[in-house]
Amino acid sequence: MAKAAIDAGCRFYAGYPITPSSEIAADMSHLLPRVGGVFIQMEDEIASMGAVIGASLAGLKAMTATSGPGFSLKLENIGFACMAEVPCVIVNVMRGGPSTGLPTLPSQGDVMQARWGTHGDHSIIALAPSNLTETYWETVRAFNLAEEYRAPVILLLDEILGHMSERVELPDPSELEIFNRVAPQVPPEAYLPYATSGSHVPPMANFFTGYRYHVTGLTHDLTGFPTEDPEITEALMRRLDAKITDNLNGIIKYEETHLEDADIAIVAYGSVARSARVAVEQAREEGMKVGVFRPVTLWPFPGKQVAHLASHVKGLLVPEMNLGQIVGEVERVAGSTPVVPLNQANGQPIPPSGILTALRYMERK
Amino acid sequence: MSRPTKIENIRRECPLQPCTNFSAEEASCTAAPWDNRRVDYPDYLRNDKMPTQWCSGCGAGLVMKALIRAVNELQWDKNKVAIVSGIGCSGRMSSYLDFNTLHTPHGRTLPFATGLKLAKPDAHVIIVTGDGDALAIGGNHFLHACRRNIDSTLIIINNFIYGLTGGQFSPTTPVGSYAETSPDGSLEPTFDTVNVAIAAGATYVARSAVSNPRHVTEMIKGGLAHSGMSVVEALSNCHINFGRRNVSGKPEELIAWISRQTVSHDIARYMDEEQLKGRVVVGVLHHVETRPEYVANYYEKAAAIRN
Ligand SMILES: Cc1ncc(C[n+]2csc(CCOP(=O)(O)OP(=O)(O)O)c2C)c(N)n1
Ligand code: SF4
Ligand SMILES: [Mg+2]
To answer: Which of B53, B157, B165, B168 to mutate to test the pocket of ligand 1 (most atoms within 8 A of CB)?
Structure first.
């Protein structure tokens, strides 16, 4: 992950140690000074997130990594990044919660927190890779999306991925497609920091480049200064939402396995999707027609794709290492197709056998 | 050391009454020689944002003027200066000044400033906060920013109250004072901001008061010129939310109340404990160049690793 971040152009990391994300910080503390970047260990997660935003405003691609309790603290400033449109990447290696919870055991309990954790209406991008190679690619993509949409991008890993070792094949960094924030094409006098044309994303001037403008967490107008004007506020809120929700094709990514002829589809993400795939192989040996739909982009949720899927199958199974979070999104679009949740929140991975049992039960019904 | 001094006599000799900068040693004002360089204020202001939203007579305006004068004297390139402010009346300052300005969430100025400075080491980062912003919600960041000694200047506008939210007591509200949330007088002991900053590791620590704007300018200028973490506490008047409940709702009377408490560092060192009771010492209270500055240190070490 650290390598992916560096390859994607990340040159700033600020963090506060927390299991199980500390390895990322350790790697970054080694790598960053060697590529001319900056690593800093801050006094807490609030500060880490603040420093990341500051560094990004000054022009560096910046990231932080944390886990449950630390993610809770970062959310205040993640909201700032949403509002002021500051690109940055936040890794949350999910562990059991609430509170200190299960520090060393996996969970998928922060899916809804990633979506709605910071206060107020906002859209968010969150990605959930399910193996190490994909973690590399999704990390690169996270930086690209952050720069392209001027938004915080959250990488949701679970503790299993956080501590997994498997063979990965990494690309030559020089062949990566890298997106950098769009700089303003106008001179400073003509720069309106939050004006858009053609897309919902305003060009971004870095601090100290001659564009002396104002960045605030308050609701602001096109000049960046605070306003409470209802029309301007509504327009800003709509645009911030639309820059994500009008660009679903550019953001949403998913993987379909054995869905062509499936009667039952499993919707699973992160490490649970690995169990799901094993379960599907076994189920198919038993003659069941099942497949897996795996959202890689969790937010915005690929609702259209799941709706389409729901109209072609007899049932949807949604296994999650929590008490049911993404299942709500599935139910929302499933229409009359039955949705079966399979939940476990005890810090243990959901084994393929558990999923297989659920599949057999659904098959009998 | 204890030369018998009649402070009141020395004070009376000063032509700049009310003044707190009188040096007993040199028998002259510590703020002198005063640089009368002309300041083109509109050049530093976002003039379309004038008049400010501050109540008329608010000390925050005096601090802003002092800050402009200090930057002007150093002739800094505006493009290289960032003002980072928090939430509060004091936090509004960032929107009025024509620099790179960043208005962070309440209490979070220093982390954001840390990111800016680390990313652009040659930038000048100035942080403007309130007493609540810097010392309550931002207290932990305050300690660690001082400890790291990152080259930046933190100006704490200490108006003894949470001004913006209507006058709740803050970590600097004097014991016994009335506030919206201490209707029977505040119980809480106060922070000694300056000593906290020194103990935490800041390398330039000064205190001033808006009763003497020239002195505020000097203290800020010293902080800006210093390479390392500078903390300037500016005692200021919130006559609306602190003054009306306690001393006076008139700005000049509250400023006089502040002025009466202040005593110059140069005079204070000849005063004993009894004489210093109830007085607040102003001046440069700590200035060392011995600790490494964090950002330069980081880049040097990183370059050494690469080579
Ligand atoms: C997280 C958070 N908590 C509370 C507030 C409400 N709030 C805004 S300003 C402020 C206090 C301001 O006091 P101070 O920092 O002393 O600044 P002043 O207004 O006195 O200049 C508070 C509590 C907030 N904006 N954010
Ligand atoms: S409320 Fe107090 S601090 Fe705020 S602008 Fe008015 S006088 Fe100044
Ligand atoms: Mg205050």
So the answer is: B165
Give the CA radius of gyration of chain B.
Answer: 19
B231 CA distance to ligand 2 centroid (A)?
22
Sequence-ordered strand ranges (E) for A177-322:
214-216, 254-257, 264-267, 290-295, 297-299, 315-320
Residue B84 Cβ inside 6 Å of ligand 2? The answer reads no
Task: Give the position, in ligand 1's atom list, of the atom nearest the Cα of B129.
Answer: 15
Tens-digit pLDDT profile for residues A39-89 = 999 999 999 999 999 999 999 999 999 999 999 999 999 999 999 999 999
Q: Is A100 exposed, middle or buried (0-12, 13-18, 19+ CB in 10 A)?
A: exposed
> Tens of pLDDT along B238-277?
999 999 999 999 999 999 999 999 999 999 999 999 999 9
Q: Kindly list the residues from chain B whose CB atom is less than 8 angstroms away from the CB atom of residue A223.
A: none
| CATH placement of domain A256-364 | 3.40.50.920
Best interface-test mutation with A: which of B104, B300, B305 has the largest number of A CBs within 10 A? B104
SS (HEC) of A164-207: CCCCCCCCCHHHCCCCCCCCCCCCHHHCCCCCCCCCCCCCCCCC
As given in the structure block, the two tokens for residue B246 are: 């306690």
**Alpha carbon distance B152, B91 (integer Å):** 17
Q: Answer yes or no: is pLDDT of B2 > 70.
A: no
Mean pLDDT of the region A187-210: 97
CATH class of B6-306: alpha beta
Q: Write out pLDDT tens, residues A309-346.
A: 999 999 999 999 999 999 999 999 999 999 999 999 99
With beta carbons less than 8 A apart as the criterion, state whether A66 and A48 touch. yes
Pick the CATH number of A1-251 from 3.40.50.620, 3.40.50.970, 3.30.70.260, 1.50.10.140: 3.40.50.970
Is there a contact between A59 and B119 if contact means CB atoms under 8 Å apart? yes
From the list A54, A210, A212, the residue facing B98 with the nearest CB is A212
Query: Which pLDDT score is estimated for B37?
Result: 62
**pLDDT value of residue A90:** 98
Q: Kindly report, residue by residue over B99-114, the tens digit of the pLDDT.
A: 999 999 999 999 999 9
The token pair that represents B189 in the structure block: 């002991």
Please report the atom of ligand 2 found closest to the CA of residue B59: 8
Give the pLDDT of residue B22: 43
Q: Cβ(B159) to ligand 2 under 6 A? A: yes
Strand, helix or coil for residue B10:
helix
pLDDT the model gives residue B18: 44
Cβ A53–B112 below 8 Å, yes or no? yes
Identify the closest residue of chain A to B81 by CA–CA distance. A208
Residue B304: CB atoms within 10 Å = 9
Contact B101, A43 (CB under 8 A): no
Dump pLDDT digits (tens) for B11-53: 444 334 444 444 444 333 444 444 456 789 999 999 999 999 9
For ligand 3, the distance from its centroid to the CA atom of residue B126, given in whole angstroms, is: 18
Contact: A51, B95; criterion CB under 8 Å: no
Give residue limits of the domains in chain B: 6-306
Q: In whole angstroms, what is the distance from residue A356 CA to residue A353 CA?
A: 5
User: CB–CB of A215 and B103 under 8 A?
Assistant: yes
- What is the 3-state composition of chain A as percent helix, strand, coil, each rounded to the nearest 5? 40, 20, 40
